[in-house]
Amino acid sequence: MAAERGGCSLDAVPLPPEVRESLAELELELSEGDITQKGYEKKRAKLLARYIPLIQGVDPSLQAENRVPGTSQATAVVSKQQKSHSTNSRDERFRSDVHTEAVQAALAKYKERKMPMPSKRRSVLVHSSVETYTPPDNHSAPPDVTTGLLEHLHHERPQVASVRGIPKGYNSSILETGDGVPVNSRVSSKIQQLLNTLKRPKRPPLKEFFVDDFEELLEVQQPDPNQPKPEGNQMNVLKGEPVGVVTNWPPSLLAALQRWGTTQPKAPCLTALDTTGKAVYTLTYGKLWSRSLKLAYTLLNKLTSRNEPLLKPGDRVALVFPNSDPVMFMVAFYGCLLAELIPVPIEVPLTRKDAGSQQIGFLLGSCGVTLALTTDACQKGLPKAQTGEVVTFKGWPRLIWFVIDGKHLAKPTKDWHPQLRDASAEIAYIEYKTSKEGSTVGISVSHASMLAHCHALTQACGYSEAETLTNVLDFKRDAGLWHGVLTSVMNRMHVISIPYALMKVNPLSWIQKVCSYKARVAVVKSRDMHWSLLAQRDQRDVSLSSLRMLIVADGANPWSISSCDAFLNVFQSRGLRPEVICPCASSSEALTVAIRRPPELGGPPPGKAVLSMNCLSYGVIRVDTEEKLSVLTVQDVGQIMPGANVCVVKVDGTPYLCKADEVGEICVNSGATGMAYFGLLGITKNVFEAVPVTASGVPVSDQPFTRTGLLGFVGPDYLVFVVGKLDGLITVSGRRHNADDVVATALAVEPMKFVYRGRIAVFSVTVLHDDRIVLVAEQRPDASEEDSFQWMSRVLQAIDSIHQVGVYCLALVPANTLPKAPLGGIHISETKQRFLEGALHPCNVLMCPHTCVTNLPKPRQKQPDVGPASMIVGNLVAGKRIAQASGRDVTQLEDNDQARKFLYLADVLQWRAQTTPDHPLFLLLNSKGTVASAASCMQLHKRAERVAVALMEKGRLNVGDHVALVYPPGVDLIATFYGCLYAGCIPITVRPPHPQNLATTLPTVKMIVEVSKSACILTTQVITKLLKSKEAAAAVDIKTWPTILDTDDMPKKKLANIFRPTSPDMLAYLDFSVSTTGILAGVKMSHAATSALCRSIKLQCELYPSRQIAICLDPYCGLGFALWCLCSVYSGHQSILVPPLELESNVSLWLSAVSQYKVRVTFCSYSVMEMCTKGLGTQTDMLRMKGVNLSCVRTCMVVAEERPRIALTQSFSKLFKDLGLSARAVSTTFGCRVNVAICLQPNRLGKLAEQGTAGPDPTTVYVDMRALRHDRVRLVERGSPHSLPLMESGKILPGVKVIIAHTETKGPLGDSHLGEIWVSSPHNATGYYTVYGEEALHADHFTARLSFGDTQTIWARTGYLGFLRRTELTDASGERHDALYVVGSLDETLELRGMRYHPIDIETSVIRAHKSIAECAVFTWTNLLVVVVELEGSEQEALDLVALVTNVVLEEHYLIVGVVVIVDPGVIPINSRGEKQRMHLRDGFLADQLDPIYVAYNM
After folding, report:
1. 236: number of Cβ within 10 Å
2. Exposure of 1059 by Cβ count < 10 A (0-12 exposed, 13-18 middle, 19+ buried)?
3. Dihedral class, residue 157 (left if φ above 0, else alpha if ψ from -120 to 50, else beta)
4. pLDDT tens for residues 494-505?
5. Could you tell me the strand order of the sheet in which 706-714 lies?
6. What is the pTM of this model?
């Protein structure tokens, strides 16, 4: 136990006996409650400190067990270990030592914080491929949560009304838990841990917002009065140096190409390398010129469609070239320019559904691209259709693929020459860019801009003719294109292009090429520097002394500065001069924004700023020296470009100039920026034509500026500093955080050890009107569960203390499963999309909504209650009528009802046996649809007599003894019921135990028999054997059964005399059922109530002997029992009985029977309706062929004790409309324990409707769910937000009066007010026989009186919340119709945040959240909301659901989910009425009996 709770296996540690003894004493103290959990942990840690080495500041319980002693320094020592695993731990971004120290220090501040670890089923531990999986050590296995699981078949819901309470003196070993939880339950100890972490005050609470009790307003984040504010002067526009005049500068890029191609044809232009680093081909300027000409000629003259040239100048053409083939790309690019076509370079699509491929397709479509240029090798590798053609990729337009290898090109004719125009404002090329949301746009760059940019770069970098440049970047876009394809040609430079694939194999390749080619310039990203650091040990002889400029293209990243520093540290000794490192900043829209000048151009010395992270989040720049933990160190990205004007403007709203110490978006005005987003005028105006204004609103220039999407400021010496990108900006409750900074912090938490290749994505999702941070990381294949959980908890702590912001969701996915961007990075928008769709398939998830979500509405405070009297007065003053309604008056109704002459049902049966002996009363169908048994009036009477004789002679029972009837649904059950009445015994109908599931179903039978004090059990031969079997003995004590009589063979004796009760108030039968909250309750039905019930139903449903009705209900309790056993005898109609169980083997049985017998009135339960809807959805055509026709049905009533399930009844009606079912036929009923039939909607079609006996159709209203939580009804329009449809529960029965009473004051309420439904009627039950264990509580359920108003009437309290509403419709009597709406059972409601929630509303939202959620149930445990969802899909989807469930409940109900439990289909128990048994589920969860796939404890 000690080992388990500490999370550290102590068996592995040799502990002296005295320490073990002290540990045992501590355990005892804790279990006795003499010491708190915290104290226990402190003392325990002290005891063990000498034996288990601690890792800096980390709770020992979070440590992985298999640590080697002495690793306390492991996290801080970086360089040595990193170098040793250069091969496998290549990290795309990398950590700075400074940052790592800050993170370690931050973590050390967190003392012991116990977080409950999620539990996971074995099969879900790793669903990455088997090869990458290393089995975890035995002692780090996750807790086994399968103990004590009740075996039941997959997908079969236990259809049992099992009971929660246990009778006194009853064998308690049967049910693991009563209402409580076993002390050692693992689940409850985890929940306790969770509560402990939540109790800790997080931050000072927000200023409370005054909330009108009626409206739930989300908290509005009040600005922090102490937040830093910018204090500097307004900045001025910064002007770059003028662009120098060069005498022989060519008028266009193509002119330069022609010049070099004709005057220096042998000069090398581009050298391509293979993956071994060998130079495979060097393209000369002569070859580039001649091949580009050939291509231009071929494109314009040789490609035709219907004898017209395929392309005309200005058309867009896609360039699809792999990163390994810069030569062909360059020929294609310049060939297009020469043909006056516009190249659109894109990535090579690898599969039909690449990440983001659809958006690229959208870009190609919007650019009107019809032709794609590619190489022979690349074309062969593309996915093909059956025809052998390249497939059309998802979302792409139809393309013609043209291969540009030499043999496909034609030689230009002598008289053909391209037109070399001067650089103009026409579009030269389109570069694609993917935005934060995932949409792809094309940025068009004009010939003039392209030329001006080359000029500016040449001047800023001091490029000279024939220099050699090594390019590691993607040559298709951004800096790789600008330096390696465009500016290089301008200056006749020689580019060595290093393919990405070579870098992966040999990270040092670029350094070796710089050395061997004596390159003067290298263009890299910080990732490339980092990779080469990890691999450089083996190389002694490289020299970087030839470099005059090392351009770091992503100089604006938070990790670039540490890359540069670390790289310099190592390579300074190999000839690298510090001043040649030149970070630059660029954006797709504005091209190069700033670059640090090489030393020979004499720029200012490099700058470095250490900024307070907290101030940055408010957009304010403060240099920070004291608080070492949360700082951001940034380097400058040099000066702005020649010929450019730059300013910094506010990020949101009007582009006002920022103050000098304020962070804003950098804007550029120059001749060298992009022109527009191709084809998108709206967003173009916003970005490319921004007009910065001063504080007084005066434009700073008459020229428009281009927004760069870079966030930064201008520092001393006019150096530009970039602190982030607009795309990575996450605004959480008013503070701005940068995704890249958060990634850097996460990477500093043991990056090498845990995160696979440093692959971390950070993005935000909007939940409840604010951004929430989501962090997704790929974990190393060999990471154990403990490693994962420990890393996650440490990342949360690090981000919390460094950025002062909570992470909403942290997810780990198996290595290599995140969608990749073209160059191997993570495709962020696609990752976000998958997260929101539930398609990310994480292997670990940690949600922290409790810490992040601070804008929930204020918990509701209970108002001092208004007294009931003032309530009534208030209602009268407001002109509101008191909410009450009644069915027709029974005494006024004249009907030719012969049965009314008899006080007792037994008398009615005898009378029918004499007057109509052969009239058929019952037909029982089997699963084939044939009649299994039948009974006429005489047969039923005779069988009842035989039962009565057996009871008296064999059972020796006295009048008033209780008899349990344990029968399957059928005529036997009915006959024995009347047999009991004939003998003067009290019958109790009991569902027989399920032979395959005795362990859970038999205890319920035993309990009902005992609680009802039955003196005898009547049953069949088969069940008699079952009750006495060995299997039964394992579940209950079979020796204590009362007398069991088998009624299969009874003596054919005539009964001497039939018992006549002395008064109608005597008990007729007991009706036992288990409520959804798991409480067993038996109600007493007197003879008077029984007859009144039958008469009321007869009048409402117009039942008489010539009628047939079909019943597909369970006959054991409530209205199902009354319809099955009582009504036919009273009214004389024939009942066709369809046991619901038979539908499992023949779903269409009930509907076929209805059609075959042309039944006008039929009754069913929601579970039957659901079975038909799910099971027959696709078979309506087949049923029609078989002749099933439902046009005979006037009324199909769903018998229920709950709020009407509108969605189900509507889909049932829609589905079977094809079989002739009238749209108006389906209606609902309502009954409960105190009165089994309060509402029944009568048949409303045909003659009766004309005669006016029918009521109006049931109405549906829409109420505001938020008001409902406050116990109020507010009617809203259909479709309005937070609206909930409620359908009237049916028409109130004759003789029934209903009133709505306040749940606490018991005063009457007004029309359309929510309260408890009270009922008064001759067929109310007379009381509980016993509510097991809660007798006193429920005494007033049957004898309640209003505290004000009509205080004389005796009412029964139904325990259901609802309201009455007078409608515009009229009843048969001409009165306005009062509709009763049932909202839900009071026992079921959840009290959370001072409000009342109905579980079904939360469950409905959850089921909508993901297609794989089959069913859902919610309950609370110690104020935590627990959501259990059944996953219908593969187990790898299980963890996707955690975030979606948490999101939807927050969005729609303003509640934070405490625990999400994911289970197999069929685990949520459902009773025979189709209601969820949530309390059972709760007990099963707390007793670890659910075998969940995953349990997530939200922090």
Report:
1. 12
2. middle
3. beta
4. 999 999 889 888
5. 238-239, 645-649, 664-669, 706-714, 720-725
6. 0.81
